[in-house]
Amino acid sequence: MSYIDGFVIAVPTANREQFIQHARTADDWFIENGALRVIETWGTDVPDGNVTDFRRAVQATPDETVVFSWIEWPDKATRDTAMQRMMSPDNNDPRFDMEKNPMPFDGQRMIFGGFEPVLELNRS
Q1: Could you count the other beta carbons within 10 Å of the beta carbon of residue 86?
Q2: What is the pLDDT of residue 110?
Q3: What pLDDT was estimated at residue 90?
Q4: Are 4 and 109 a contacting pair, CB within 8 Å?
Q5: What's the rounded Cα separation, in Å, for the pair 3 and 114?
Q6: What secondary structure does DSSP assign to 43-57, as a single string?
């Protein structure tokens, strides 16, 4: 069964194109290491909630846009192997070198997690 990594971040709205380039550079690595697909979305209808919401979750400021992204893996084992490879001190891939591909957002406010699908509906 597939496995999903999900991410929510706040990106300075002025950094939209920088974010897309950063994501394009890093996301290729995930595909090369077994991901089935990577989706990066730019928030266009992210309402403020009464109790909680996406903006509060990442402490987005008025000049930031919420980005919701996910990586679909064929299974958790493939994901775990790829993430272990990415986090390894031996990973010298320039796509993860913060000087060569700096994050155009505050990574400390990113929320993320791994999820096992429990229901999937498809249009046929």
Answers
A1: 15
A2: 95
A3: 82
A4: no
A5: 7
A6: -SS-PPPSS--HHHH
Residue 24 burial (CB count, 10 A): 12
Average pLDDT over residues 71-85: 96
**What is the DSSP annotation of 69-97?**
EEEEES-HHHHHHHHHHHHSTT---GGG-
Task: State yes or no: pLDDT of 92 exceeds 90.
Answer: no
Consecutive H or E run containing 64: strand 64-73
Which residue bears the tokens 């069964």? 1
pLDDT at residue 87, rounded to an integer: 79
Q: How far is the C-alpha of 16 from the C-alpha of 11, rounded, in Å?
A: 7
85-93 contacts at long range (C-beta below 8 A, 24 or more positions apart): 85/33, 86/29, 86/33, 93/29
Can you tell me which residue has the tokens 């790829």? 82
Contact 72, 37 (CB under 8 A): yes
pLDDT above 70: percentage of residues in the chain: 100
pTM to 2 decimals?
0.89
